[in-house]
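Re: the 343-residue chain
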Amino acid sequence: MLYEKLDRRLVRCDLCAHQCKIASSALGFCNVRQNIEGQLFTLAYAQAIAADIDPIEKKPLYHFLPGSRSYSIATMGCNFRCGFCQNWQISQISREDGPVLPGYELLPEEVVENAKRHDCQSISYTYTEPTIFFEYAYDTARLARANGLYNVFVTNGYMTRQALETIEPYLDAANVDLKSFSEAYYEGTCKARLQPVLDSAIYMKRLNIWVEVTTLLIPSLNDSDDNLQGIAGFIAQELGMDTPWHISRFYPVREFGHLPQTPMESLVKARDIGLRAGLRYVYIGNVRGGNDGADTCCYDCGAVVLRRRSAALVENRSTGGRCYRCGAQLDGVGLAECGAATQ
């Protein structure tokens, strides 16, 4: 899907913002789309590398069907080259590493059946970048919708408007990874550009897809006040103050193994910056052995309405999606039905 034939058997992929021009027999930047004699083929279709049942909070999505399960799938590959990727073993694979990409056949029909059998309310396309296994996600999402299931992208946001318009009828929510507010950071660390990510997040909101944003806070790379104020301001002004922002702790890995884990003080500072920018919901995540900053508080009176432990909802004190204390309506999808209310 989403490519154009050019002269001399070249093709241009219009799926992600790289818009690779690919020569015959060559691979795109994602390493899972190949030009074969002037036609673009996906190498990832129904070739799952991971499939699991997760709490929706693990995506992280805190305001979309909280307390529910999501059947999560991924294939190999990614259209970024982040040196800090915690899933690099499956995201940074290349056809050049071997003649066949790792994975096993898991057809869309099987994904939907597995989700229903395990009482999942949604299917999440996650772990790697769902844009690069778009055809697989698209066919699965259509079938999921026909079976009463929701669809979620956990994404770097680096897709074209055409891709979003194509998946929009079946896509209910997305967590967009906004890694920095610096063009230099995106170019140097991710081998990508910032603006397409911002454009995607804005367009998702315009298409009425529920959006939450995540930023992995890495010491000395993207934790400056200016950078955090830029992200918080963008979310508040362009996406809306009802858009949750998840600030995630970094742990040393791969090319950034020499850096320390994110200090708690930096995470708290980032959260304060988000709240001062007017955001209603700012969360601290990926903190092992702790839960500070993971609860949903009423933006009006400050009462803890949804309490979480280990990326799961453990207490719901809302009344039909409203604060039990002051009656303010919390923002999100499915909050009125989440979990068993406890007063």
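Residues 225-239 form the longest helix (15 residues).
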